[in-house]
Amino acid sequence: MVSRYPAFRWHPGANLHWLVLCDHASNRIPPEFGDLGLSAVKLLDHIAWDTGARDVALRLAQYLRAPMIEQAVSRLVIDANRPVGHPTLIPAVSDGVLVPGNQDLCARERQRRLASYYQPYHRRIDRHLKQLESISLAPTVVSIHSFTPCLGSVGQSRPWPIGVLWDKDRPFAQHLIRELGREGGLVGDNQPYDGRAIPGDTVDRHAASRHLRHTTIELRQDQLGTPAMRARWAGRLYRALMATTAQLRAQHASS
């Protein structure tokens, strides 16, 4: 059965020097899955999506006048930011919460979810980047995520309002961390997650593999509770990204 529920959403933008991604934009469960055995409260929780990330990503894309691609279904259906074969690609348990609808899935069902809800998202990103390659454009890829102030299964406080994750593009990340720090507050350097921890995640698969400038941004969810808060973070990210790219261009010109 081929799903008619959209796997991704494309937002056009005129500035092709940037691409904004949001892997965990939605908590929507396609009707064929019901509620996956979870309560409505749980489906509003962080286990289902990155709360606030989509709004920040959209606002940032608008500042940049850049295209944006977002995953349109919940990470509980299938996690777009995991490589195929990863144990949490279709999570049976998320932050200590059992997901009844994901228990003991057969290989055919796992393959069906890949074909319906995972591969179309990644094909859309790949198609866009191949189109830019054909006209010798190399965009900077920015992926927006959010994280909880305290992860339930760990119980450890996370003091960083924002984190910059990196693996293969450390220079871009270090410049960006410095620029974000100019407006005050802690900036996580590969915190609260290590950008090197999951080879084959979205940014690694599409941007690092093409040697494109890239970064993954993590925002703490208590910083994103209102539209005004999300707008402030989008503006702060925009300013830091502009300053970072200007510095790197200047360094390249003088070398």
What does this structure look like?
The protein has 255 residues and is an alpha/beta fold. The protein has one domain (8-254): Zn-dependent exopeptidases (Aminopeptidase, 3-Layer(aba) Sandwich), CATH 3.40.630. The protein has six helices and nine strands, in the order ββααβββαββαβαβα. The protein has helices at residues 40-43, 53-64, 107-134, 170-181, 202-206, 227-254; strands spanning 8-11, 18-22, 68-71, 93-94, 97-98, 140-147, 162-165, 187-189, 214-220. It has a seven-stranded mixed beta sheet with strand order 1-3-2-6-9-7-8, with helices on both faces. A hairpin with a 2-residue loop joins strand 4 and strand 5. Helix 4 (170-181) packs across helix 6 (227-254). The radius of gyration is 18 Å and the shape is globular.
Task: Write a brief structural summary.
This protein has 255 residues and is α/β, with parallel strands linked by helices. The protein has helices at residues 40-43, 53-64, 107-134, 170-181, 202-206, 227-254, and strands at residues 8-11, 18-22, 68-71, 93-94, 97-98, 140-147, 162-165, 187-189, 214-220.
